[in-house]
């Protein structure tokens, strides 16, 4: 590495990309057969296809254990107070897969990055940011449902429905391997937009007066950190870059710190 000048310098690099993701032609079809995703005219490619949650069932929605007259019946199995309440979009009085709709998109439409470099009297600083917008992620199984298959519960699951916590953000606890709450829906779909402080590196290059005495060409000391800050809308402990429909088989991003010497002879 060349010896650092002793003047102040600063450089900034930035980039931004944005695009529209929309299906405009399916060869004469309006849509292709859906699963957890759908390809439909006017929607994004592989849009997330699921149920719209409009709240939680309350005890007042039941009489002697049965849903009150006038409420749509559940085509996914028995429900109880504290379960997710889906929107009967087609108005047929039955909550089933026919009530699915587009609830998100897994394709990032906005991507940006920025890098800052500065140096002053042998001190150098590099900072790197990245960001993504327009992407949603649906979580499944162990990644989303508390006590799935009688398994773990995560800290972000703590706000679940009980008779004493009726305005909870999540449904009642229901350990098992299947349940009407555990379907692709808006409760388990999250805005995966984020920005991240990807890297910070701080270095110091010894002045020539010291380098000459050491009989070397250059010596730089540095410390750096990666993934230091992430601002996102995901549950605690869930990294926003995980794949869609993740069931828990992922390793989250971790903070990494290191330091060292660069010596040139």
Structure description:
- Strand 11 and strand 12 form a beta hairpin.
- The strands form six sheets. The protein has a six-stranded antiparallel beta sheet, with no helix packed on it.
- By secondary structure, it is mainly beta.
- It has a domain of 141 residues.
- The N terminus is likely disordered.
Radius of gyration: 26 Å
Number of helices: 1
Query: How would you write the strand order of the largest sheet?
Result: 1-11-12-15-16-17
Low-confidence stretches: 1-5
Shape, per Cα inertia axes: elongated
Q: Terminal Cα separation, in Å?
A: 10 Å
- What composes the largest sheet? 6 strands, antiparallel
Strand content: 35-45%
* Average pLDDT metric: 93
Portion of residues within helices: under 10%
Total strand count, please?
Answer: 17
The computed structural class is mainly beta
Order of helices and strands: EEEEEEEEEEEEEEEHEE
